[in-house]
Amino acid sequence: MRRQIPILITTIAGLVFAISYFIPHDPFGESESIFGDWITIVQAFAVWLGALNLLKISFEKISNKTADWPYAAIIVVSLMGTLAIGFYDGYSGMAQDPQVSFRDPGTNFDWLYRFIYTPLSATMFSMLAFFVASASYRAFRARNVQATLLLIAGFFVMGGRVPLFDMMISPITDFPVFSWFADWIMTYPNTAGQRAIMIGIALGIMSSSLRIILGIERSHIGGGSG
Amino acid sequence: MRSYLEKMKASRVLLLVLVCSLLLVSFSTSLLAQTDSDTDTPADSIPAIAAPAQVTDLKAFDTDNDHGHSITIEWTLSADDGAGAKSVISYEIMRWEPFVRDSVMAARDSLGWVQARINKFEKEIPLAEESLDEVLTGQPFLDSLSFLVAYDEKDTSFVLTSEYVDKTLRDTIAAMKRDLPVLKVRAPLLPARFDSLLILLPKEYGKYPDATIGRFDSVGTAVSGVTSHENSSAVDSRSPGFIPDFIDYYYRIDVQTSDPNIRTTSEIVGPVQSSGQWFNSGLVPVLIAILVFTILTMIFVQLAKKGMDLYVRPLAGIEAVDEAIGRATEMGRPILYVLGLGSAADIATIASFTILGRVAKKVAEYQTELNVPCYDPIVMAVAQEVVKSAFIDAGRPEAYKDDIVHFITNSQFAYVGAVNGIIMRDLPATNVYMGKFFAESLILAETGAVAGSIQIAGTDEIPQIPFFFVACDYTLIGEELFAASAYLGREPELLGSLKAQDYAKAVLLASAIIGILLINIFPEYGETFKSWFEVID
């Protein structure tokens, strides 16, 4: 019973979605947006589930004095501090004209967002540039035939994306060799490869969905694949 | 030093003189140009724009394959659009609206506003009462209802008369006023009655072309050169510009020129009604593909059940899971499993749950440490169940701990920062990344490579596959992620579906080759063949 009810719900929901894709008429046509609203509501509640889990794990780490407990303490202080500042700034409600919200520009919460959260996120994202360089260095080593082909393709694609390479070769030929070859690689071999993967993914999603709707695939609700 | 300063000063003076000269020249030139243009084309000599030719072949019909509430208008361009006098700049689509519709909607919106005030703020009841008085006594739109004579299509005995509508409006407003003190408690949603009234308004209510009971309103604009327009609304009757189904509409197109006073009106077309369809005929190829795929799956599932040997090529990434767990056990280090940034509704995340179950079972058997930091709270809840079940299946329920699967944050780069911190502090022996990944894929995988972990990744996000490919030891590419559950389970039903997938791929490949050959050798047949696959959504 513990497994049959989730399978039944999954099957019914899957079939409703599959049918509503072909039927634009009400109520099927609107089912996706109705389910979407439900998901939004469930997710809004689930955020609390996540926050409580985070607090529970962090408090356990602090009380047990595990190796990385200071990080857990920082999490708790940051979470509580952000919450307190948000509540302090408050929200006037929708009926108030003009509305005053903790998310408005100039509030304490906005200060936290702009001067702490955003720079920290940008810092993490900017690390990508360095990781691209280190990953490229590892990938573009001509260890075998495939790696050598990758190196050559990478050289032309990168060279074709900046005008410098075409300019360097201009005394020999007016034809923009690098940008032409880069475009050719991106338009033909690259697109063909991506489409092949895309077709495989589409069929894989279709097959997985069918397995889930028919109840053949049950591993996602726990306990083995069958 | 001094001579240098003097030189600087001199050059500044020179620059100033140069700029002033340039300004003087440009000012004189513009003055001259203005004088010239004044002389050449005085305002009163601009030729008047002639009225443009009207559009022809105007058609209005219900939009195909939709949920209703939409009418498509098509026309042939005016003779002066891009040709002739070339005076057309746009087309204004005009729809005839009876006054009664505006009246009902205005009453509904007014009452909705009043009720919102009552429901939210008790102290505003006097204000609401005042508003109701205004609606009841002073609003001119109630007077315009007196012409309505029509009927309800479903109930032939019922007659929706002007008196009925008028009374309904007045009764509703009076009821709201009477119940004012208790409305905030029981919230009867009286304005909702107006929605049903709008739907009830029958097709004859307009009786076009009686101009005394309605007018043409603009419902959209199309720029010159465009020959069609879709006049549509949302299904919700409270949405702006709502178009009820099964009601007569009349349209005309006004050809506009650069002079707002000069426009040409077309003939009027109608009546036309909108309605929803019960099958989207533009999706027939998709339906056929799904049916064929389902039949193939069922055939292969049956064949597998009868004992047919179905070969599935080895998936190195999945084969490596056991080896990686063994390595972690030997090294005494944990295994990090990242489910990605997808939601529990993503198929990639569901496929990842399957692999997580397998990993968790092995972890329980080998008594290794597992860490599953989650981005989404719902994913966390599902993952907790999967891991718990796997520990029970392995016969070690006591080894399951609540902190194995835990929530981090649903902010992308904060999550990356936290997971990178875990990698660098715990130095896991194995990192598994399965699910939906975006910009964080390379940041995670490179950090894992720096930490010296064995890394296995799989995603259906095509742009992220190269990143995983260069930074990880094993990568499941696209469909391999979805095949993993069947590969791990080795059950006939699952393997059968996998085989059906392979044959469907072969059918697609054959279709592509046939299409390429036909379009190049017999273009006419090729076009026909191509049209079989066209989907109109």
Structure characterization notes:
- The complex is a heterodimer of chains A (226) and B (537).
- Chain A contains 7 helices and no strands.
- Chain A is mainly α and 226 residues long.
- The longest helix of chain A is centred in the N-terminal third of the chain and has 37 residues, at 28-64.
- Chain A is extended.
- Chain B has helices at residues 2-40, 99-120, 125-138, 162-178, 180-186, 192-200, 284-305, 316-331, 347-366, 377-393, 412-426, 440-450, 465-471, 479-489, 492-521, 523-531; strands spanning 56-62, 70-76, 90-98, 149-151, 159-161, 214-223, 228-232, 249-256, 263-265, 269-272, 335-340, 370-374, 405-407, 430-436, 454-459, 474-477.
- Chain B folds into 3 domains: 49-278, Immunoglobulins (Immunoglobulin-like); 284-309 and 494-531, no CATH class; 316-490, Rossmann fold.
- In chain B, strands 13-12-11-14-15-16 form a 6-stranded parallel β-sheet, with helices on both faces.
- Classes of the chains: A mainly alpha (226), B alpha/beta (537).
- The interface between A and B is large, with 68 and 93 residues.
Short description:
Chain A is built from seven helices and no strands.
Which homologous superfamily in CATH is the superfamily of the largest domain in chain B? Immunoglobulins
* CATH architecture assignment of the largest domain in chain B: Sandwich
Q: Could you name the CATH topology of the largest domain in chain B?
A: Immunoglobulin-like
Q: Report the biggest beta sheet of chain A as strand number plus sense, adding barrel if it closes.
A: none
Gyration radius of chain B (Cα, Å) is 36 Å
Order of helices and strands of chain A: HHHHHHH
* Number of discrete domains of chain A: 3
The average pLDDT value of chain A, as a whole number, equals 88
Instruction: Tell me the number of strands of chain A.
Output: 0
